[in-house]
Amino acid sequence: MIQRHHYILLALLLALTVGSFLVSFSSGSVDLGIGTVLQLLFGAEGGLEQQILFELRIPRSIAAFLSGALLSLSGVIMQVLLRNPLADPYILGISGGAAVAALASILLGFSGLWISNAAFGGAMLSILIVFGLARSQNSWSATRLLLTGVVISAGWGAMINILLTTSANNSVYSMLFWLMGDLSQSSAGLPSAFVLLGGFVLMMAVAPSLNVLSRGDLQAASLGVNVARLKLILYFSASVLTACAVTIAGSIGFVGLVIPHMLRLLGARDHRVLIPASILLGGSFLMIADSFARSIIAPQQLPVGVVTAIIGVPAFLLILRRTKPAPG
Question: How confident is the prediction for the chain on average, in pLDDT?
């Protein structure tokens, strides 16, 4: 049952999201200031500042929010599907397939939308390969799916190393930025927003079943949940969400791993609360990380994945320290 403190948590996260947008709009090599941003948003004329805000900052902030929200929601789904606290959106090799396709496009001289489309295609190919290999006699288990994903990830990793070592020096820099997560050229369109909205609606519809499934397949089946069908929905939903996130910003780590754990520590264990909370906190986290990435050594920029790792590693260690071990 959703309790009063859950509504308070969601309200606070919504306020954090609004504040994160304002910080993201104002941060960068040109410091606009939150007051200036508010004036420009409400119709004031600003010349160059207006151009920076509406043509650069706002599209990048939206891309950061969508990417973080997609990864967080996918992380929630993966942790339920695999019943593994270390599961994250990339654990099944989706980012590896996307990376190989994107790096190959960079190596061939493509840029912009071509790289994004290639990354999405590579991610979808990896999804089909993992699912096809994980099936055995028309059935599959979480363990088999996880092991298949790990092996496929290792294969993609080998191909990534081959592409990096055989590339010209001028291509390696772009490849490394993509692998570490980069929002400098990102602008998410309506398709990504619709995928996030569709994933949110679908997961909220099955949230009561997720609460039961998190306690085990047998208990879920005994309460009338079609476990096989639900797991199929979860796998492909998480995969598509991750594919869209990778298409927007490359491989950004720790968002889908840390955010769900952090929210569970804050009391959001009911998936009817955890799902919207993960979207808000994941999007806010990545916007704040991106603000640091383009401000710390301005006018140069760090890959946002570096910042999420710097924040995510100690955060996850703290979460592990505060998490009680399972009995037995």
Answer: 86
Report all structural domains of the chain as residue ranges with CATH numbers, in order of start.
4-321 (1.10.3470.10)
Cα dihedral 151, 153, 154, 156 sign? positive
Unique residue bearing structure tokens 């309200």: 11
Q: CA triplet 116, 24, 311: central angle to 5 degrees?
A: 80
Identity of residue 8: I
Q: How confident is the model at residue 109 (pLDDT cuts 50, 70, 90)?
A: confident
Single-letter code of the amino acid located at 160: I
Task: Please check whether residue 268 is in contact with residue 10, taking contact to mean a CB–CB distance below 8 angstroms.
Answer: no
Instruction: Please say whether the beta carbons of 102 and 115 come within 8 A.
Output: yes
- Distance set, CA 264 to CA 127, 258, 278, 322 (Å): 28, 10, 10, 11
Lowest mean pLDDT among 34-38, 43-47, 163-167: 43-47
Average pLDDT of the residues in 25-33:
83
**pLDDT score recorded for residue 171:** 77
What pLDDT is stored for residue 328 in this prediction? 41
b/e for 4-13, b at 16 or more Cβ within 10 A?
eebeebbeeb
Which tokens is 192 given? 């990504």
Element (H, E) at 291: helix 271-293
| pTM recorded for the entire structure | 0.90
- Give the residue-averaged pLDDT of 117-127: 89
Return all residues near 119 (Cβ < 8 A) that are at least 6 apart.
98, 99, 101, 102, 105, 243, 246, 247, 250
Q: Is residue 122 within 8 Å of residue 101, measured between CB atoms?
A: yes
Tell me: cis bond preceding 299? Omega within 30 of 0 counts. yes
